[in-house]
Amino acid sequence: MDHQVVLSAAQSPDNNRAPSIAQTPREGHEVIEVQILPQDDGWGDAATAVTGNTSDRSNSPIGNGGTVNSIKWATIPQENQSSDNLGWCQRYVGSVIGAGIVVIAVASPIVMVVGHRIGFPSSRPVTNTRECGPECHAFLLALTVKLVALFGAVWAIFWRGSPATMPRIFFFRAITLLLAFLAAFTFWLFYWVRAEEDGDLSIVGATAFAGGLADALLAIHYLGVLLTEVRQLQPQFQVTVVRSPDGMSKQWIMGSLSIQRAAVWVLQNYYSEFPLYNPHLDRMPPIRKRQPSMNNSTATSFKFYDFDGISSTFTPTGRMSRRGSSHNERFYEEHEYERRVRKRRARLVAATEEAFTHIKRLQDEQGPAVPLDAMEAAAAVFPSLARPLQKYLRVTRQQPWHTAESVLHHLAACLRLGLAPRAFLDRYLSYQPVLQVRIIFYNIDD
Amino acid sequence: MTAFQHTAGTAMECLSIPITLQKEPGTDSEGREVLRCGFKIGGGIDQDHTRSPYGYTDSGVYVTEVSSGSPADRAGLKMHDKILQCNGYDFTMVTHKKAVDYIKKHPVLNLLVARKGVTST
């Protein structure tokens, strides 16, 4: 069965931007779609992404053999007509039930106390309804604090979707829910018995029940936190991830997670730690001789001259000692390439530092009273930077990612913040992790 | 950067072997008087060194053959030597034709050659 793990990144508050980023498949790029969702998903292991082929009961045409490319975001319900309701039901029933149990359990103490106040279990003598001595007050205060803590705790830990949609029952959450349900049920049972059958439930007793239930729920919440969050922090496995086209690999230490959650974890780490794969780097052009006065069209073969005879040209036919040099070629090519990259990088850094000192001098001349207009200053020095930067980007094949506009903006931002030249250059010199380059590329920040 | 991966036009410092080659008079196939050298050269900055059968790694002028018993052989020139200078003329940035013309012009050649394994490791 296909395990398509769809990553939903918890993102910064500015969600008014493009709510989803779909990376169109470029050659050599993996096609994992990243969606940045607003955080209003339900409790429990709700699916935060709409997927079509992870259910073994769906009989959609994509089915279980669907490829990653064919999964789009909002079109799944249309493609999945035949099992629409069933799929929806499957995905959300868990979270609905969970939410219901939580609401009931958390609201129970309040209902117990208030109910007693308003005479909710009706068949009771009303003699002892109004007395609320110091014990009762103490209980009520403690109850309030505990309820506040419980609300906060439930919201913080459980009010968010789990990124992995399978398995449908998250074992530990289910256990916690079950315990909460049992606790609520037991307390209500005893409360009801006391109030209805025996009829001797005082206000102190009611608040005692409520307080006890709140205590029990807090304890269960603690258990739930331990089971779902803390247990997997203990390192237990080492995971090695190797990326195919360029062989980049990393090792991470993981706790004990289910396979699906482990996959999501690996993906999250991949997006934040792996540098972006540049497919253009693999297609290096053949070595060109940059001789300015030469006409390269005459260099079709290698000429020899025999001083005692006539000159001849050699067209390579057999395998002479050429085979001895082929393994060196690659080495020399890479050596040359690295030298070129280093040379251009050095020139770029020098040019940038010069530009920045120029700006600083200007700023000092004008005095501290005149604030620096970042865009103007950026536009002023940009031409002197443009050429070395462009050459460096060409050599490292990064130029499709950085337009002149974006460079200008970045320069203005750096000048406004008073950053050093190397801080400005970091974006171009170092390999950026995958997620960040996509953000740069789609111009989401600055 | 060694002498054998030299980019033409850049400065380079390397050891070299000085070889003095005296051409000797002889007759060629048509009976004319010529000065014999006894070696062949290949390469030049207008040549594509990647197509050389010997796997030369840069665009300098290389000795591709030395006939035995010839003045070149007696002077100590060996095959696959790279000629760096000839009579003070820089041979790391010459075209093939220029190299040929220059060598043919002078009766005595004071060469500076670089040899793999000897002048560089």
TrEMBL record, chain A:
- Biased composition range(s): Polar residues: 9-23, 50-65
Which domain of life does the protein's organism represent?
Eukaryota
Enumerate the InterPro entries for this protein.
Answer: VANGL
Q: Which UniProt keywords apply?
A: Cell membrane, Membrane, Transmembrane, Transmembrane helix
User: Main location per UniProt?
Assistant: membrane
Q: How does it sit in the membrane?
A: Multi-pass membrane protein
Q: Lipid metabolism: is it a keyword of this entry?
A: no
Q: Does the keyword Oxidoreductase apply?
A: no
Q: Where in the cell is it found?
A: Cell membrane
Transmembrane stretches in the record are 92-118, 138-158, 170-191, 203-227
List every stretch annotated Disordered: 1-27, 42-65
Q: According to its UniProt record, which protein family does this protein belong to?
A: Belongs to the Vang family.
PANTHER family from the entry?
VANG-LIKE PROTEIN
Q: What is this protein called?
A: Vang-like protein
The organism of origin for this protein: Orchesella dallaii
UniProtKB/TrEMBL annotation, chain B:
Q: What is this protein called?
A: PDZ domain-containing protein
Gene3D superfamilies for this protein: 2.30.42.10
Alphabetized InterPro entries for the sequence: PDZ, PDZ_sf, Synaptic_Scaffolding_LAP-MAGUK, Tax1-binding_p3
Residues forming the PDZ domain are 18-105
Tell me where on the tree of life, at the top rank, the source sits.
Eukaryota
Q: Which SUPFAM superfamilies match?
A: PDZ domain-like (SSF50156)
